[in-house]
Amino acid sequence: TTDPLVIFTPSGKRGRFPVGTPVLTAARQLGVDLDSVCGGRGICSKCQVAPSYGEFSKHGVTAREGALSDWNSVEQRYDDIRGLKDGRRLGCQATVQGDIVIDVPPESQVHRQVVRKAAAVRDIVMDPATKLLFVKVQEPDMHEPSGDLERLAAALRDEWGITDVHAPLPVLTKLQKVLRKGNWEVTVALHRGSLDGRHQVIDVYPGFHEGRIYGLAIDLGSTTIAAHLCDLRNGQVAASAGVMNPQIRFGEDLMSRVSYAMMNPGGEVEMTAAVRAAINDLTVDIAAEAGITPDQIMEAVFVCNPVMHHLLIGVDPVELGQAPFALATSDAMGLPARELDLNRMNDAAQVFILPCIAGHVGADAAAVALSEEPGKSDDLVLIVDVGTNAEILLGDKSRVLACSSPTGPAFEGAQISSGQRAAPGAIERVEIDPATKEPRFKIIGSDSWSDDPDFGTPQITGICGSGIIEAVAEMRMAGLLDDKGLIGSPDQTGTSRCIVAGRTHSYVLHDSTADGGPLIAVTQGDIRAIQLAKSALYAGARLLMDEMGVDHVDRITLAGAFGAHISPKHAMVLGMIPDAPLANVRSAGNAAGTGARIALCSVTARRDIATIVRQITKVETAIAPKFQEHFVNANAIPHATDPFPHLAS
Ligand code: FES
């Protein structure tokens, strides 16, 4: 006689098992993704399955209907307390009785895939570093002396096959009470280090713990710090929040912060303290927003540029200010959060920092590579992550190059006369009628254009990064601006919206001075700031194209916290990016932030990134002689020499 055939769907994995084999056991032997937190004790209900053909063991009588039930006594108890859905069985209790097809529903799959929120859908395969595990620990025995932690480690080894278990002090101090309170049954939040494979107990709870655990994915930028709080079971974002980087008071861009550290003894210590305090505040806020307690935050993953990286870990960034731009370390780091004074999450929380590529190309670029995967692309893709410092990647399956370029904060609305952060009241879209030279615009927080009767009289406070890019590009298209970037006079342009401002001209977008409101205009100084920023961006991209030996790219991806809001057409009219078919220019949103989320949700991704980083060739813009030449030529709008055939069509 042959054993019954067991087939799991949707994986299609199959095998023969003796009658009486628990489904969870069969699933484990076949490598089927079936969750379990309690180790098969019928407590966690994570292992639920649904037979779609054939039957499991039958047991008992249901309390509800008095009918013959499929459930055994453990399942019955579970159903009485919490309710088990009809047609569902606990995989650890139901046993194989004959040939059967078993469906594993999505919520019972550990590695269940989560769809990203952004426009470009990409699945994150869940494989988090921190998981909850339920164990039964041996009680102490005078004749076999061993510590509570050693017996907990033995239980983790015997029940879950986990070795190399350690517990930091915050866990040790509570372990004995929790073990006794749980009557030697506890749930452990266990963190597996992707770098060393060590297991750290982050927290321990009496009995079976129903609570959720979370992690933070933090994109630590020069201007803003953006965080996503993610549920570590399914990767879902529970809350998102952002704050300004308080280091701005020490210098707006990276190099001015490096100079601050050079000029002021102890300056780097001040900047480190400031950014850590801001991350602590952000942690408190985001936990409050999601309605969780800070001790539910088990870990944080950081992506950042090299200067932010060094200031986060408390290393003086002075070496990054001078050739050969040596990093203290470019490897990924895993360490306890409290070593970084990040003390608003769980006391034993862990931090993972993505690796830097080299020199000026940081973990943020590595995160973009992780999320956008240029090294898997058939055609040549240019990825620009626009921020105070632009990270630029160019590549395809054969090769990936990366550089960073100091664009300055103009694209984020700083250094712009009416500039502001993207927030309600900021002008974010602009159109200028080429015939009348009259503008219309949209502000953040309103769906209608300013010439729409529904627009009303909202408070208009300034112009944000995407708004200024559109305004300058529209001014060029409407003939208010020549290719050198000079704003025409009222006479030259034939509109009174161009006003004289000293020896230059400004273009008025919105004037509410009569009502005591602001005058929002694009000044010659604003145009200059945008020209400098876009030239730096373009020159970086061109440098990579030279290195690659190409004069055009197939696709362009705009990334960055506000990359999602930049209109591809306007970016190209401005000459921020090289020429490409407009349909092949897309926005990826905050790709670095997405990369951080992927790393938060997946230990495998943390390992992959090390390989990806090794395959990327860094190009240093600061010492490349061609950079200056590209920069000067890119000052014209769109460009002094490079053709833009796709703009004509
Ligand atoms: Fe926990 Fe089945 S494994 S209830």
UniProtKB/TrEMBL annotation:
Residues 4-108 form the 2Fe-2S ferredoxin-type domain. It comes from the Bacteria. InterPro entries: 2Fe-2S_ferredoxin-like_sf (IPR036010), 2Fe-2S_ferredoxin-type (IPR001041), Beta-grasp_dom_sf (IPR012675), Corrinoid_activation_enz (IPR052911), Raco-like_middle (IPR041414), Raco-like_middle_sf (IPR042259), RACo_C (IPR027980), RACo_linker (IPR040506). Pfam families: RACo_C_ter (PF14574), RACo_linker (PF17650), Raco_middle (PF17651). This is ASKHA domain-containing protein.
